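Replying to the earlier thread about multi-chain prediction with a worked example.

Input:
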Amino acid sequence: MARIIETRQLTAVTKYFRIDAPLIAASARPGQFVMLRVREGGERIPITIADYDRELGTITIVVQAVGATTQRVCALKTGDEILDVAGPMGGHIDIAPGGHVCGVGGGFGSAALLCLMREFTARGDTTTAILGARNKDLLILADELRPLCTHLEICTDDGSAGFKGFVTQRLAQLIEAGPPRRPDSVVAIGPMAMMRAVAETTRGPKVKTLVSMDPLMVDGTGMCGGCRVTVGGKAQFACVDGPCFDAHEVDFDVAMRRNKAYVQEEKRAVDRAACMDRRETA
Amino acid sequence: MPVKRADKTPMPVREAQARARDFIEVNEGYTQRHASFEAERCLRCQDPVCVGGCPVNVPIPDFIHAVAMGDMAGAARILRSANPLPAICGRVCPQESQCEAECSMTARFTPVAIGHLERFVADWERTQPPAAKAEITRKERIAIIGAGPSGLVCAGALARLGYPVTIYEALHAAGGVLRYGIPEFRLPKEVLDWEIGLLKAMGVEIVCNVIIGKTLTLDELFGKMGFSAVFIGTGAGLPQFLGIPGENLNGVMSANEFLTRVNLMGGYDPEKADTPVHVGKRVAVIGAGNTAMDAVRTSMRMGAEKAMVVYRRSDREMSARVEEYHHAMEEGVEFHWLTNPLEVQGNAEGWATGLKCQKMKLGEPDASGRARPVPIPDSEFVLPVDNVILAIGTTPNPLLTRTTSGLLTNKKGCLVADEKTGLTSKALVFAGGDAVTGAATVILAAGAGKRAAQAIHEALEARGA
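Result:
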């Protein structure tokens, strides 16, 4: 059981949680994730650790209500307990110090840039965070990220805030601009389509790029192999070998197809959960 | 006096057609009459060789004699003095290659049904008020990594010696492979829960959701957490894949994934569980060990119309327990022996549709002593399938060893540990079970856990002296 210390609704479907989890907070590193379960009989779902505070013993996660389980997570309030929180799972993001690191966040994936930017800025790296959203209202955590990085770039599809266009267009401009704005390495965290587009943007100019893969998982400890991702032609387990992989080696076609394996079941689960919760409150 | 009767008393089983579609336990268990009747067959040999066939040396004739005399409490006490998980081992041990293989009756008749009697006694014990209580007399705290068979047994043995014990489990529920691997119809969760409840009553603390090597390092268990010794029972949970084309198609998964979805996550009861299980009409399970039998029989219970085992060797080389194989056959599982999978074929949406195979014949013995399967030229064919489940073995999980310095492993990734004591390359760190041996049996893991508990006790005594 882990108590929720703070919640904030970031957008209509995205919620910020600070959770009391001292052991996880003490050992978490950027890029790692936790497995959550919110009810008996519930699924185990992987959620990227957005941030951690070792002194307060808390971790931060941002959850988007898309499926039955994430909807249940988002229904939780400050003071509620989460049934199971296990982690930190996976390897952390390992980039040699002294360079210019650019974190690209799309949608609720932007949240994971919090600890990434803070750690790399603190050790003396130059850091750029590129945040992307469809419009100004869907943009999250820009104010929190601003003090944590050297440069903050905001991109919206409709131009309602910052650069008008995709994160990849702004990233391409920065790469083309050369030093000091050109990053030495890029970390992309967000929807699969965005990560794939980032991979294509950095492939030509040969900028080392990591993507944080988010495949279906059951246990998160290397036991099921359900999360296998094809990297450089070889099957890798995202939970223990990843979740971050060389973007230029990842087979996104396979990854996107595998993530759709349970689409029908997931749809049914959403309806069923709504029905069950109605019955429980009645 | 023993009664001469050639055949073992059969285990009452549920009717194959009925049981093949639900998860209720297949074996119904002996009644008191069955048990007394069977117990009379034991010859009570002067030199009971069956005891040597048991990895934990249960005093078999003694407990069976107690059953024959109607002394159930005595039988339970004798059994539990040697085997801390009798209700589980009575259900899942390969008795035919252990104790029952050594039984003197086998020379001319069928062996005494030692496993069935063990289960009977243990199930009787579960109907009694639990006798266990916490008697913690030692101040040295012991940490156990992994709540599977070896860890549970090690914890029980240490608690009996008076040690305060904490088990750290990575998953949200204790039991290890007994929880995520072995299905309900073979080992009901209530049996496992009862055994775990007993440990808790003895004062053993079980902390779930803590991954040693991630949440805490092994070294932190000694430093920050203040433990005096550690036992590693992390099992062999990493599934192997074949590396054949099409293995990443949708509908292809490891037996670990399939069984975890059904067992640990409760997929066998879709009314209560959220975790989806996708089972098509035709399921091919690759491999012929106990995990393969569990997977194929589970797929049938989850709705498969055609459940198949595909194995490149023949039935004689299969490693599954005889009982599982018989039960699978009765339930209508199709066996494709001497059939080697070459490729999984898929449709445009990326779902598996066929398993391309090649017929094999047996050749000279290989390194494992079993006849080597050799391909028959031009024998390729395609088996139509919706799911392919790989049950071709597991290896130890490297999660702990990757983050711990000074912990030696062998080429196969198994922990290097002393055979008698379980001592690893690190001081006061012991290990046992599948993490040391590679995938093996529950009873071997239990034996290792028990021996390590004694070794931990002796090491701490020696240090204190």
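The CA atoms of residues 263 and 269 of chain A lie 10 Å apart.

Feel free to reuse this layout for your own posts.
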